[in-house]
Design goal:
about 300 residues; alpha/beta; Rossmann fold; Methionyl-tRNA Fmet Formyltransferase, Chain A, domain 2; five-stranded antiparallel β-sheet; about 25% helix; about 25% strand; elongated
């Protein structure tokens, strides 16, 4: 079978490994779709997205429609006559007329074991829920949000101390590997039939808001520890300790300790850790940051705040 005429659609860092392996394969993309450039920071400086930068460096045409619903957007894609459109964290919905353009339809690489955690934040939600494993699903896209039948999956255990950022990086590499397997099986005629998702098992992973990362000390310590991992590197869990607002980067639960929720447990646990009582158990904080200050270890914080020890 001849090399596939592919188009790739993605925007953030998660999609970069998948695009990289596609660029290095015989199925090099004819074009790359990515979201329009946006300003970042206080000055709203325009910064190229990771996928766009990689595509430009590789000399691949970049298309950045604000929406694919416009007829001119779908027409531009149709002119490429793709065999397959591959998406990974693209961020824009593909309308039915776009889904129908490629000969083999559209594939999506999704960072969960579908139908669990459909939506925008599957990695974060898996950690928040205390899931023991997650993975990558290669699915045949349809009009619904992550509802299409699944072609292939790859599973992985979630580390006990793994942050969303660490899991994100592992899953992005897994997505690239699964894409290579899927393409090999498609061109060799060995691709398994897509399996419809069980709607009864579907769960939703909504878009994250900064307010979601606010710590409520009345909650169990184990849940707060998962919250801290799930919102690292963004938006970073935050709360007040002894009246001091701070961001918390690393912590662990201590079910053997107790106190009034939010109480600073002086002298509890290890001397290099700051311990706060929760609704159940306590939370030992390893790294934190006060507003307009640098991120520090609990030991450095305690050296500067001896009244907390």
């Amino acid at each position: 079978m001849r090399p596939l005429r592919t188009v790739f659609a993605g925007t953030p860092e998660f999609a970069v490994p998948a695009l990289q392996v596609l660029l290095e394969s015989e199925h090099r993309p004819l074009a790359v779709l990515t979201q329009p450039d946006r300003g970042v920071g206080r000055g709203r400086k325009i910064v190229l997205g990771p996928v766009k930068q990689l595509a430009l460096d590789a000399g691949v045409e970049v298309l950045q429609p604000a929406s694919l619903r416009a007829s001119e957007s779908s027409a531009a894609l149709a002119e490429l006559k793709p065999d397959l459109l591959i998406t990974a964290a693209y961020g824009l919905l593909l309308p039915p007329r776009v889904l129908e353009i490629p000969v083999h339809g559209c594939w999506n690489l999704h960072a969960s074991l579908l139908p669990r955690w459909r939506g925008a934040s599957p990695i974060n939600q898996a950690i928040l829920a205390g899931d023991e494993q997650t993975g990558i699903s290669l699915m045949q896209m349809e009009a619904g949000l992550d509802t299409g039948p699944v072609l292939m999956q790859a599973a992985t255990a979630i580390g006990a101390d793994e942050t969303a950022g660490q899991l994100h990086d592992r899953l992005s590499r897994m997505a690239a590997s699964l894409l290579v397997d899927g393409l090999d099986q498609l061109v060799s005629g060995r691709l398994p039939a897509a399996v419809p998702q069980n709607e009864a098992l579907a769960t939703h992973a909504p878009l994250i808001d900064k307010s979601d990362a606010r710590l409520d000390w009345a909650m169990p310590a184990e849940q707060l520890a998962r919250q801290i991992r799930a919102y690292n590197p963004w938006p970073i869990a935050h709360g007040d300790i002894a009246g001091q607002p701070c961001r918390i980067f690393r912590a662990q639960s201590r079910p053997d300790l107790s106190g009034s929720p939010g109480e600073l447990l002086r002298g509890a646990g290890h001397k290099d850790r700051i311990t706060v009582a929760c609704g159940q158990g306590a939370l030992e904080v390893f790294e934190l940051q006060a507003p307009n200050r640098k991120r520090v270890s609990a030991r450095d914080w305690l050296n500067a705040h001896p009244d907390w020890a």
